[in-house]
Specification:
By secondary structure, the chain is mostly beta strands. It contains 2 helices and 8 strands; from the N terminus they run ββαββββββα. The strands form 3 sheets. A 3-stranded antiparallel β-sheet has the order 1-2-3, with helices on one face. The longest helix is centred in the middle third of the chain and has 8 residues. Bound molecules: FE2/S2 (inorganic) cluster. FE2/S2 (inorganic) cluster binds next to α2.
Length: about 150
């Protein structure tokens, strides 16, 4: 289960779940089981409640295994060429850099790749799929500098 990152989206919100961080506190489904139900697959269904209620529940997650990005209201219009979504960069302790939002990645050959939702970039230097994280940081027991 380590290194798995799942993303769930609606027009209003993008929710990311990192099971390797989950401490099984049950706070996510206690109080909002219609959205977070571990008996169903997928276990997250963002259509069952509104974004504000979902964000409030995720704020209770003590491990940060669940996180969210609220999308800009303007981004739900037809004008998708100019993204107004906020880009968020998150450092995963002893792991990759997560970038939420629409970005363009230019590789060493100059090729451009558009990414949306969430992208995980290697921070340990050992990935075989650079610039992306491939989970090798766990195998090499990468630790943040103290
Ligand atoms: S941070 Fe994951 S492979 Fe380097």
């Amino acid at each position: 289960m380590e290194n798995i990152i799942k993303t769930y989206e609606t027009e209003e919100i993008a929710v990311t779940w990192k099971p390797s961080l989950c401490s099984h506190s049950t706070k996510c489904w206690n109080g909002l089981s219609e959205v977070f139900n571990p008996r169903l697959k997928p276990w997250v269904d963002l259509t069952k409640s509104d974004a504000d209620r979902i964000m409030k529940q995720i704020d209770l997650c003590p491990s940060a295994a669940l996180s969210y990005v609220k999308k800009s209201a303007q981004n739900t219009t037809e004008n998708q060429t100019e993204s107004t979504e906020e880009t968020i960069v998150e450092i995963v302790p002893n792991g990759p850099v997560l970038v939420y939002g629409n970005i363009t990645v230019k590789d060493t050959a100059g090729n451009l790749t558009s990414k949306n939702k969430v992208s995980a970039f290697c921070r340990c230097g050992a990935s075989s799929n650079k610039p992306y994280c491939d989970g090798t940081h766990r195998k090499i027991d990468f630790k943040d500098p103290q």
